Task: structure prediction
Amino acid sequence: MLEKISCAGLQPADLKGTSIVYNNSCAGVIAQALKRAGSTRAVLLLDEVDKLPAESQFALLDLLDGHRSFYEKHLDCDIDLHQLVPVLTANDLEKVSPILRDRCDLMPMYGYTLAEKKAIAANADYIYQKSLRDNPGLQAAHNQHEHKAHTLFEKQYTLTQTIETETRYRTETRTDSEGNPYTVQVPYTYYICNVKLENFDMSHLPVYIMGEEQMSLYAVYMHTLGNRPDLFPNGTYPNASTVKEPTYYEIPPEALEDATFAAMMAEAEKYVGYPYVWGGSSPSTSFQNPAAGPGRSAKRRRAGTPQIPPASCSGRAQAG
Result:
């Protein structure tokens, strides 16, 4: 049985446990690992002991002592570890206490060579397939996206093959029964194979995997180019950098007596003059109502908000 303990930042109390006289006391990580293993006849991997504080490294000396008896403070007893095989790892031996280092047999483990890395990369498909087998959720996601990828690939590339045939003639020299040569025209079939590969624009391919609602939103996006001049500088639509002087209207004072409506108007005034831009959320990036979504009206009237005729509906609302 193999149990692993990550040693980074562990204090002595984390290793040996805390006395039961304290609130929230508990056994140390070593005792907990042995409990998980169900036996002291196990392999205990203490990972990155070089990241242990100095006092915590000294706490491990009992674990590596010749008599192999480890005192657990929480249990208040010695644990016999004669059958335990401790394995310590470290990235930097200089940070491991010399006393602790002297009690270990050092086995340097070097990184992969260039040739080994190439071999791993060449066998990457095996690693990927193993990951799919070990993770059912990943397998389901893989199947879903693989199907979409195949659909897009099939739609992006269209290979058309047509075969035409022609009867052509070749000249052959033959010899008659008297040994005199003569020429004849011999017909044969000539095959012409026409191959046409069409590559369609990727921007139009997602429509094959979209629903009706997604399709309508995508159509608006492609028509307006997202109203993002930073991404599409050649777009002709207004954006957050083109602030326009709006048309103002007077709000009836009685309408502003409604606290909810007054708060809505105060917030709306921040965006006066800024056009609708996808992804906007502040006056500096322009405005988008996240509840409305692209291509939908961003106007919403809360229940209880008085309806005002268009000629006097909003104190500082842009016309149109």
